[in-house]
Specification:
The protein has one domain. About 70% of the residues lie in helices and about 0% in strands. It is built from six helices and no strands. The termini are far apart.
């Protein structure tokens, strides 16, 4: 059956610690969160773990304001290539 929310969060958090490069696990971690600010926090951590993930950037951008996204992109020199490649995410 289904797990209680706190137990599900713990299981997904452990999986993310073991496979931090898995975008699907980060998405599942975001699904476990109820509040928007915590969903944003999950995707921000995902972008720190997987800076070249266009999919994480796009999901994060849907949950954030455009000013905040520009701030994130400009503050990370590793992510500067994303500005060029966002037009072809898949």
């Amino acid at each position: 059956m289904f797990q209680p929310p706190d137990q599900a969060k713990a299981v997904v958090a452990q999986a993310v610690r073991h496979l931090p490069e898995s975008v699907k696990l980060w998405i599942k971690a975001s699904d476990c969160e109820v509040e928007l600010k915590y969903k944003r926090r999950v995707f921000r951590k995902a972008l720190e773990s997987i800076p070249n993930s266009v999919r994480s950037l796009l999901l994060f951008s849907f949950l954030s304001t455009s000013d905040y996204i520009v701030h994130i992109l400009s503050s990370k020199s590793k992510s500067s290539w994303l500005i060029k490649d966002v037009g072809t995410p898949w």
